[in-house]
Amino acid sequence: LGSVPHRELYLAGHSLTLDNVDTYLEGGANLGGLGGNETELLPTVYAGGYPGSTVGRKASLTVTNSNDKTIFDAIYMGHGTENGNHTSYQGEAVLNLDEKATVRKDVNASHCSNASINMIGKQYSYARTKKFVGNENTTLTLNTVSIAEAAIDGVGNVVLDNQSCLSPNTKDLQNVTLKNGACLDLTGVKDANISGDFTGAAEGTEKGILVLNENKGSVKIHGNITGITQFQTDSKYFPGAVISGHSYIYSEPSNGKEDNFV
Question: How far apart are the C-alpha atoms of 150 and 167, rounded to whole Å?
Fold first, then answer.
C-alpha cells in the first residue's frame, strides 16, 4: 500500500470471470493512513498487461452475480501503454457485465479493433454502470436490462433486446437496433441524431418502441431504416399525445418506408 496504492486488474489479453466478487475497500483512516485521502479504493481493469508482459489476443471479462460491493473505478477493454505504465492492448474484446456491477467512471473500448459490451439483467432491472466509450467497431447490447441517463460516446452499434430500455442523456447515436419489445427513450434529449442505420423488428415479431418528448421531441435518422418500430410520446408505459403538425422523425424519403413507424 502507500499513498498511491496499485489497484490494477490485468486481463493480459485473456479471460477472467468474477463471480460474486467484492472489489470495494474503504480508504483513508480505515487503513491507518496508508490509503491516503481517498474515500474508497477501487480496482481499474486493463485488458493489457503489467509493464513488459506478453499478452494474449482476445481479452474477455465477465462480471456475474454482483453484490453491492462489486465496484470498479474504470474498465479499459483497450488502451495504449499509458507512458509505459502498461502493456497495451488494442485487439478483440468482450465484456459481460450484470446489472449490479458498478463502474464509477466509464467502460472504454475505443482502442479495440472489435469489442462487444453486453449488459445483462433481469426483467425490470436497472444497470448501475452508465457511461460507455467506443468506436465504430464497438457493439453495446442491452439484454433484459434498462439504463437511465446513459452516456454513449462513439459507440458504433447499440442493440436493445428483450424488453430492455435505454434512456441516454447524450443526443448522438450511430447505428441502432430495437427488437423484442425493447425501448429507446429519447425524452431526455432534444433534437436527437442517429448518424447510421435504424433497424426495427422483423414482420411478425414483437416490435421495439421509440419514445420522444411530446412537445419538443425529434430525431433525425441519416442512414437506412428497416423493420417496424412502434412510436409514441412521453413514456414507454403511459403514452402521451401526438401533436398534429409537429414533425417527430426526420429522414431522407429514400431511406425508409411509410410503415417503418406505427
Answer: 6
CA 179 to chain CA centroid, Å, is: 17
Nearest to 120, CA basis, from 151, 137, 97, 148: 97
Element (H, E) at 166: strand 165-168
Residue with cell 403538425: 245
- The DSSP letter of residue 255 is G
HSE of 132, CA atoms in CB hemisphere, 13 A: 35
pLDDT tens digits along 217-245: 999 999 999 999 999 999 999 999 999 99
Tell me the pLDDT tens digit for each residue of 65-106.
999 999 999 999 999 999 998 999 999 999 999 999 999 999
The secondary structure of residue 37, as a DSSP letter, is T
Tell me how far apart the alpha carbons of residues 208 and 177 are, in angstroms, rounded to a whole number.
9
